[in-house]
Specification:
This protein has 17 helices and 26 strands. It is α/β, with parallel strands linked by helices. The termini are far apart.
Length: 629
């Protein structure tokens, strides 16, 4: 009986334990569920707080003031709230048909928003990225300029030459980090045809923006290597919007390595019997360095012709990017006349057929020290920039007529390697960075569109790709990017006379005068009496001969005067602008009828007071009359 009671007690205890354990488990589950709900609630509240905080953060805007639909004058802007960051300020070389040396972006928008500008970041030292820096610094105050060593050397030289203001300058490299109120900005090294070329990353609360700068992937470079590992890491961390170089998007192949160029030049220099003249881009420091090294190898002395080439080599030697003794160079270029041809290697400017470049002067006999001979070998270690083909062909043809040996990338494809990656390299960049949205930059429209199609093959939809014009703006908010209006963007033409440049209208007027001529129409009026005292008198330049067309000129003068008198008799309020408009309209219409040209007609109105008119009449009365013959 005792055992049964003990057994029942044991069962009761076991049941009680099971019940307690079940209750504990139920309570635990209830507690866990409550905790989970509380966590979700807290997360939701935190998310709402973050969302409210982000919604208060102003959007990030991205746009270009130059560099879209063209090759040159690169200038890209990232702004948020009270911050504007500028990337590059470049120039585009003007064609011979335009009466100017170059074209730069208009700074109208930046002048209006000067107080918000925080810095100017230079991706690299090519003219299409730094050529407008003196003009920019003359127009607006830049708190700080960030650039690599070689770019800083080139910019400082420009600022001294042009007398432009010099801002604070900071040297950047692969490890530089800039922190501002809205952005964290850092850099990654890329291969290009100049040292110290860096892609730029902007990180804000709304997402990450990348500008690749000009790039290629050179797996056997003669200079520093691209930081492919960092690009891959950036892609892993996430890229919202990618701005990427489109210049060479029409090329299907992988670009050549600079090492290939070195081997090709080595062979040319070894086999040449006479003088060697190599034209290359002055800013291609690595290639210039290799040419100098090859001259040493083949026991030739180096002669430098061209101001920009001389300047870049001097800067590169000072910062030890070109590290050779003075004995390699011919100190006085005049000595080249007395040297044996087999001992001479000339490095020259003039790759783009520029009229006043050293090679152009050699080709047409204007160069003082070098007259091209049959035994010479001339090498174009370059390619023509779009828009410069005609000038390059002219120089090439003049050299061929002199019967010298001409080598270019048509006769020897390895003699030049582009600094811009082709389609395969653009695919690699897109694959490394894995952007959500894509903005092809730096290139003509066909190049941008082709780059967009390449991006499509990596999974970036066309509705997430933006083909824009200068001034058109993108808005980035909460990791999303949309088109959003525009800012003023125009061309400004510059020459050596000043830093302000000329507007498109001024250049248009110059071209119009050159093509159609100019006419001036002078009248003397008395505004107090609303009448014409004298004239109109028409003078023309570049339209027709003044003396032999006297009857035509008198007829035009008569029609202008008749229209002016009709205007004076009308009940309208007489104004100088009204008089000028009549003179311009009648003058342009009548000249077009006669010569089928559209000259610029300049009205000149001389307003006489009554006192001045009386004085002129009295002086005329005092003059002795001429005796009749």
């Amino acid at each position: 009986m005792k055992k049964i009671e003990d057994t029942n007690a044991t069962i009761s205890l076991k049941n009680a334990s099971e019940i307690d354990l079940k209750n504990i488990n139920n309570n635990k589950k209830t507690t866990e569920k409550q905790t989970e709900n509380e966590i979700k609630k807290a997360d939701k509240q935190a998310g709402n707080i973050v969302s409210r905080l982000i919604s208060k953060v102003p959007p990030t805007y991205i746009y270009a003031l130059g560099g879209l639909g063209e090759v040159g004058k690169n200038m890209y802007i990232v702004e948020q709230g009270n911050e504007i960051w500028i990337m590059d300020s470049g120039i585009k070389f003007a064609s011979d048909t335009v009466a100017a040396d170059g074209i730069i972006p208009s700074f109208e928008w930046l002048i209006r928003n000067q107080k918000r500008i925080k810095g100017l970041i230079i991706t690299h030292g090519h003219e299409d990225h730094i050529g407008a820096v003196p003009h920019l610094l003359n127009a607006v105050r830049i708190p700080k300029l960030y650039a690599g060593k070689i770019a800083i050397g080139l910019i400082n030289s420009k600022l001294r030459e042009r007398g432009a203001p010099r801002p604070k300058i900071e040297v950047i490299n692969n490890k530089t980090v800039i922190r501002s109120l809205n952005f964290k900005i850092d850099f990654f090294a890329v291969n290009h045809s100049i040292p110290d070329c860096y892609g730029v990353r902007f990180v804000s609360k709304h997402g990450t923006i990348i500008n690749t700068a000009d790039f290629k992937f050179d797996l056997s470079p003669v200079g520093s290597r691209a930081d492919i590992a960092k690009m891959g890491q950036i892609g892993t961390e996430g890229v919202t919007l990618l701005l990427s170089d489109s210049t060479n998007s029409l090329s299907e192949t992988f670009s050549k390595s600079e090492m290939d160029v070195r081997f090709a030049l080595d062979k040319v220099i070894k086999n040449a019997q006479g003088r060697i003249i190599i034209a290359t881009f002055a800013s291609n420091v690595y290639r210039v360095r290799e040419i100098i090294a090859l001259a040493e190898k083949h026991k030739r002395k180096v002669v430098i012709f061209g101001y920009s080439m001389d300047k870049v080599i001097d800067i590169a030697r000072r910062i030890k990017y070109i590290n050779v003794p003075d004995s390699v160079f011919v100190k006085n270029s005049k000595e080249v006349k007395n040297m044996k041809d087999r001992d001479v290697l000339i490095i020259s400017t003039g790759t783009q057929g520029e009229t006043n470049a050293a090679l152009s002067k050699m080709s047409d006999g204007r160069h003082k020290e070098v007259k091209i001979r049959k035994e010479d070998t001339v090498v174009f270690a370059s390619s023509a920039i779009p828009g410069n083909y005609e000038g390059v062909e002219k120089v090439t043809n003049r050299l061929i007529k002199k019967q010298c040996t001409v080598i270019n990338n048509k006769t020897n494809p390895n003699i030049h390697a582009s600094g811009h990656g082709g389609k395969q390299e653009q695919l690699l960049m897109l694959s490394l960075l894995k952007p959500t949205f894509f903005f092809p930059i730096h290139g003509e429209t066909a190049m941008q569109i082709t780059h967009a199609k390449t991006a499509l093959t990596t999974g970036i939809a066309l509705n997430k790709t933006f083909i824009l014009k200068n001034g058109q703006r993108l808005k980035m908010e909460h990791e999303n990017v949309v088109s959003d209006g525009s800012v003023p963007a125009d061309d400004v033409f510059v020459d050596d006379t000043n830093l302000k440049g000329q507007s498109m209208k001024v250049i248009g007027d110059r071209n119009r005068m050159a093509k159609n001529g100019i006419a001036t129409v002078t009248i003397q009026i008395m505004s107090t009496e609303n009448r014409i005292i004298n004239g109109p008198f028409l003078e023309t330049k570049g339209i027709f001969h003044q003396e032999s067309n006297r009857d035509l000129i008198l007829e035009i003068e008569r029609k202008i005067k008749s229209s002016l008198e009709t205007y004076y008799r009308s009940k309208n309020k007489i104004s100088f602008s009204g008089l000028k408009e009549i003179i311009r309209t009648i003058g342009e219409n009548e000249i077009f009828k006669l010569r089928r040209v559209n000259p610029i007609v300049l009205p000149i109105i001389l307003n006489y007071s009554q006192e001045m008119h009386k004085k002129v009449l009295i002086e005329n009365m005092k003059k002795p009359k001429e005796k009749e013959t």
